[in-house]
Write a structure and sequence with these properties.
Elements lengths: L9 H7 L7 H9 L6 E5 L5 H6 L5 E6 L2 H8 L6 E5 L12 E7 L7 H9 L2 E11 L19 H12 L4 E2 L2 E2 L8 H7 L3 E8 L4 E5 H9 L13 H15 L4 E5 L3 E7 L1
Parallel strand pairs: 1-2, 1-4, 2-3, 4-5
Antiparallel strand pairs: 5-11, 6-7, 8-11, 9-10
InterPro entries: Diverse_substrate_MTase, Methyltransf_25, SAM-dependent_MTases_sf
GO molecular function: methyltransferase activity
Keywords: Methyltransferase, Transferase
Length: 267
């Protein structure tokens, strides 16, 4: 994982990303028969959004991320039951112990996937599960149902980012002309897992956002992290805010939460 992927994004992440559907924790609990025992390992935890949501289902939880600023934000949450570790997924240590569940949310594609899959497999207790949270929190669900405020102007925002950073998607210190890698199922099966079992989590709730939160959303992305703009970051933010004022003079936006699927893999 490129440690610069989210450089400067940590302070924007919690404010900028949409929440997961409220029922996600209940679906995981019921689908895996969780009873408050065992431990959770959340890999690529960012500022701990998912970790905090799921931690009450376990006796303990560990959140791991390669970005030190993300871990610092997570520690500010004040959740005593979670241990936060600044650590690359590829460097997961046997000394962390064993876990009933390991979760990956919008993170696995950045890692050395075969290595991480094997390493986490050996850290799962008998009967344990790897859970890939297949959901998107940077943008809402498409649809034609009415909303109380305009949606963020995604196409115009993307065009503005390209105007500043060029036509090829940026990520960390490099580029992603083909996007992030796919083929997770093949990676998991090659590493000795079976599955996946699919646990759907319905979205649909309307989430209202301020212009400040939409700006935070843009800066929370690896493709438009603050460091990518260099000395022009203030100019970009000025133009972004002007674009948002044009799209919604009230400064309010709304989006509908997307459905999420929990993909459960077992060693």
């Amino acid at each position: 994982m490129n440690d610069a992927l989210y450089a400067g994004s940590a302070r924007y992440y919690a404010a900028g990303r949409l929440p997961y559907p409220e029922r996600l924790a209940d679906v995981l609990r019921d689908g895996l028969g969780l009873d408050g025992r065992g431990r959770l390992l959340d890999v690529g935890c960012g500022p701990g959004t998912l970790t905090r949501l799921l931690a009450p289902l376990f006796a303990g939880a560990v959140g791991v991320d390669a970005d030190g600023d993300m871990i610092a934000e997570a520690r500010r949450s004040g959740v005593d039951s979670v241990e936060w570790r600044h650590l690359r997924a590829e460097e997961l240590l046997a000394g962390l112990g064993t876990f009933r569940v390991a979760t990956f949310a919008q993170s696995f594609h950045w890692m050395d996937r075969p290595l991480v899959a094997r390493r986490v497999r050996d850290m799962l207790e008998p009967g344990g599960a790897w859970v890939h949270v297949d959901g998107v929190t940077d943008r809402g669900a498409p649809g034609d149902q009415p909303l109380p405020h305009p949606e963020p102007p995604r196409d115009e925002i993307d065009a503005l980012v390209r105007r500043y950073l060029g036509p090829v998607r940026r990520a960390g210190t490099g580029f992603l002309p083909q996007g992030t890698p796919s083929g997770e199922a093949e990676v998991m099966r090659a590493a000795g897992y079976t599955g996946p079992e699919r646990l759907p989590v319905e979205g649909g709730a309307v989430h209202e956002r301020s212009a400040d939160q939409v700006v935070a959303m843009v800066f929370s992305l690896s493709s438009s992290a603050p460091h990518l703009f260099g000395e022009r970051v203030a100019d970009f933010e000025r133009d972004l805010r002007a674009l948002l004022r044009s799209a919604s003079p009230s400064g309010r936006f709304a989006e509908r939460l997307r459905d999420t699927v929990l993909l459960v893999w077992r060693p």
